Amino acid sequence: MTFKLINPASLGTPRGYSNGVLTPAGGRLLFVAGQVGWNEKQTIVSERFVDQFDRALANVIAVITEAGGRPDQIARLVLYVTDKKEYTERRNEVGKCYRARMGKHFPAMMLVEVKSLLEADAKVEIEAVAVLHP
């Protein structure tokens, strides 16, 4: 499937995301609930932000794969973090984890700093929208 990335010159060049993603007609939308960095026993995998980010993204991809999709069919990601400073300090490590799982696919993204997440030890939660084609 080919998305058309919408990045107006008037907004400057985005780094690591796209400003808009135009999807082809006829796709099925998959809304992925917020995923945290926990394992199959619903235990947070680590205290480290990067480890939690990597596992949360893996969990998002697991939902998409289970529905018959692929990571490159993700049209939108929303990242909720409890500490924006920690995210920016670990940006290079986060980027390596991201590219290992997503390659150079950069959907529309948003990062939101929140006071806390439902899971007390979670530092990041990721939700997604994917467009799946038969």
Describe it:
28% of the residues are buried. Helix 1 (49-66) runs parallel beside helix 3 (91-102). This protein is an alpha+beta fold. It has one domain (4-132): RutC-like (60s Ribosomal Protein L30, Chain: A). The radius of gyration is 15 Å and the shape is globular. It has a four-stranded mixed beta sheet. The chain is built from three helices and six strands, in the order E-E-E-H-E-H-H-E-E.
Terminal-residue CA separation: 10 Å
What is the overall shape?
A: globular
User: Secondary-structure element sequence?
Assistant: EEEHEHHEE
Radius of gyration: 15 Å
- Proportion of residues in β-strands: 25-35%
CATH first level: Alpha Beta
CATH topology, what is it called? Answer: 60s Ribosomal Protein L30, Chain: A
Number of helical stretches of at least 4 residues: 3
CATH superfamily: RutC-like
Largest sheet: 4 strands, mixed
Helix amount? 25-40%
The spatial strand order of the largest sheet comes to: 3-6-4-5
Poorly predicted sequence stretches spanning 5 or more consecutive residues: none
CATH architectural grouping: 2-Layer Sandwich
**Quick one: how many beta strands?**
6
Summarize the structure.
The protein has 134 residues and is an alpha+beta fold. The chain is built from 3 helices and 6 strands; from the N terminus they run E-E-E-H-E-H-H-E-E.
Topology, please?
Elements (H helix, E strand, L loop, with lengths): L3 E3 L13 E3 L5 E9 L12 H18 L7 E8 L2 H6 L1 H12 L5 E6 L10 E9 L2
Parallel strand pairs: 4-5
Antiparallel strand pairs: 1-2, 3-6, 4-6
